[in-house]
Amino acid sequence: MFKKTLVLLYACHCTITVFGQATDLEHRIANARMITTPYAVGVMDEWGEYPRPNLVRTNWINLNGDWKYQITDINKFEYLGFKDAIKVPYPIESKLSGVQKPLLPTQTLWYFKEIKSPSLSKNSRFILNFGAVDWQTEVFVNGKSVGKHTGGYDAFSFDITDYLHGKGIDSVVVAVVDPTDKGINPHGKQVLNPGNIYYTPTSGIWQTVWLEKVPVTRIENIKVTPDIDNSSVIFVSSTAGNNLQKGKVKVTVLANGRAIADGTGNVNSGIKIPLIKPRLWSPEDPFLYDVKVQLIDGSRVLDEVGSYFGMRKISVAKDREGHQRIQLNNKTIFNLGVLDQGFWPDGLYAAPSSHALEFDIATIKAMGFNTIRKHIKVEPQLWYYYADKLGMLVWQDFVNPPHGLPEGAKAEFEKELKVTLQQLQNHPSIISWVVFNEGWGAFDQERMTKLVKEEDPTRLVNGHSGQLLYVNNRLRNDIKTPWVASDIADIHSYPFPRPLKDDFGKVQAVGEFGGITVSVPYHTWNDLQTWGYDTKKPAEFRAIYRQMIDSIAVLEKQGLSAAIYTQPFDVETEENGFISYDRMVLKIPFDTLRAINTVLSGVNINQPVERRLLTAFRLINEADTDDKYAQYLKSIRGGTGDSALIRRMILLSMKKKDTSNTRYLTSVFLKKVNNQLNYDNVSLLTYVAASPDDPGYSVLLRDSTGSAQAIGEQAYQRWRKKVITNRFIKPMLASKGDVDWEKIESEVTQVYGPSGQEYIWGAAMMQNFNSKDWNDFGKYYRKYFEVAKEHSEYHINNMTWKIFENISDTSLLRFAKDVSAYNVKEKDNSAEAIDTYANLMYKLGEKDKAIEWEKKAVAARPDIKELADNLDKMLRGVPTWPVDSTKRN
């Protein structure tokens, strides 16, 4: 049984900063309008397939299913009895987990499961395997720590044999810390404050957990390298356990279940096996050879595993016009693909089942694409098996480090990158590695690109997808030395694709384009937030997409080799997929998409779409558009229409700025719904009600406690701020006279109580910040941060730096120093924040302490010249602030 003497989880080696999204995230996750995919209905197997197709064993136990869990403060274990259930392998934030709670960076998530203890013997070991756990993990068996792991996307294992009882019941506890986007960890598009192109976080176990019985001396890894030019394949196997004196590895290659070739060699040495007329792997013919690998000692077979491989080659060659082209099996192939994020409305990072993963890939291929760019996420290994099996080319992104590159982030990214390379190396579908994306956390680009090329010379390396980024034909990021050491020159261009100005002697690619939003009523993740590069009706979308592919066909003749459309499925607030987020509604028919795409992708248009795909989706209703606004409004006025339609019409009336009908529809909606104060309805009312004249205003103000409980205190206070701004602040600012902030504060306090006071002081501070009235800025800086320091909505360091630069009043400088000290200690320990704190001390005459702290800032960011300059000035005893700043007071 589980012991209360469990040791504590080791400290998370990362800087954790949380700015107050916690309450919002908790309510958003627990109450969001969760839509469900068809695959989630009746999910029974909980990922019952063997999860590692490249190294298959038969003696295993699936540990997915029901576990117990509890959440505690980070690095603190308090035994709470593990009374609550969670479904593994679904992240705790997901609907399928049965929990739907966030894990904050300040918390530890503990899992607990009891298993029947296996029988022990001297000839076998028991390995506990995890497909992936996000992010930092420690595992305990029967109360003792068996190992730790860091990394949110890779598989890891522990030999737990020596910790098992051998009879009765064993307990397994898994402790997880996940900073999400507040640590050094690669996190992809997971953030604590999701919206637009960023999504709900995933924490904890999100891939299969299984227990395996293995021999003491066993095969640990297999590396397969096909060589189509020499009609052979090379195998390298490594082992674990006791050292072999005379051990050999025997490899048998099978085609359609029949042995066709074999070879024997030493452990850790290449075994080259010739193949007669090998059948090459391609999207048109994704043939896979099966493999049996045996570890033998004399006549004894010590271990046996199964695997597979595809015979294919990926390379680059010039065409007749001198353009570099991607070649598959020594033949040019245009890569027409989609940007696949790998998110699900019910499971988030985890698909409902592996069959759902396979269905996604089959759906993308049925659309007429031959390529998937797997976007800053690493999938379960079964996803890559299905890509191999179905014949889909894959560009695999590495998961980006955090944007700010806090100390330790570079090393962590590089470590996780190498593990990704090693674990995915055998999949024939992967033809290119993508190192960085749009500058997100990019560093040492040349070195990192060369590192990947050295680790895997058999694939292309895309050193930076979107290093040049165009939005509406405007360049958002210009650079002098693009795509250094890369095989591919890759621009992003939204919404329409555009050519590269220079091919830089590399393969030309448009790594992202499109992003056209087509909303599907009643199939949205959040109808209050929709994001995309352009919004079109379904019929317009079909025509625009055809124009995009026609333009790419022209660019292809000019040297373009690849184009990736954003994206196959809607994802949360992004409604720019070909299919709705719940995988139910198709926005362009399969036959239309295939006919458009086949010009570039070469997908066989004569091959019929599988019936299971044709029946899985319904086509979007092109007649149900915003043009029916007047017709729907008339029917609602006539007494028909349910609350879902009325809600949709409220939002549409706001888009049309039809204020009178917005108010009318809101009043009808409030009469229709049974519970005005649930999350959905309060969220809508806070979106709609901006003044006392709006029907939802009285509901929200009358029951402020219930409203705040429904959506979270922070979200409710944001609504109050919006109302205060519209009712009091905007009219005063519009008068163009002197603003009497004290009068506004008095009026607001009378209506909304003391909590409205800080909104006024914050608005006053920002108004004077913008007008550069530093005397009044300082006055309201003090008033605001006296009441709002712990939950400031403004960037403390930016505001405080202006005090340092422009204020000489000692009292105010001391107050600002205290605010800065709090900021550095509790919220923001960046080099820039430390620099502000040091400069305030220096200006107040605390030279020695200032120098001590400024040295810390320089050590943290030696690349920022201004920090070194400030330290130099402090050491020389000259001002670090503008010399004329004191004249402003």
Task: Walk me through the topology.
Elements: H1 22-31, E1 60-62, E2 65-73, E3 84-88, E4 107-116, E5 124-130, E6 133-134, E7 136-141, E8 144-150, E9 156-159, E10 169-177, E11 204-205, E12 209-215, E13 218-227, E14 232-240, E15 247-255, E16 258-265, E17 271-274, E18 289-297, E19 300-309, E20 314-318, E21 324-328, E22 331-332, E23 335-340, H2 354-366, E24 371-374, H3 381-390, E25 393-397, H4 409-424, E26 430-437, H5 445-455, E27 460-465, E28 468-471, E29 474-475, E30 488-494, E31 507-514, E32 516-517, E33 534-535, H6 538-557, E34 560-566, E35 585-586, H7 590-601, H8 611-614, E36 618-619, H9 629-637, H10 643-655, H11 659-672, H12 679-688, H13 695-702, H14 704-711, H15 713-734, H16 741-752, H17 757-771, H18 774-788, H19 796-806, H20 810-827, H21 831-843, H22 847-860, H23 865-876
Parallel strand pairs: 23-24, 23-34, 24-25, 25-26, 26-27, 28-30, 30-31, 31-34, 32-33, 35-36
Antiparallel strand pairs: 1-12, 2-3, 2-4, 4-10, 5-9, 5-12, 6-11, 7-8, 7-10, 13-14, 14-17, 15-16, 15-18, 18-19, 20-21, 21-22, 28-29
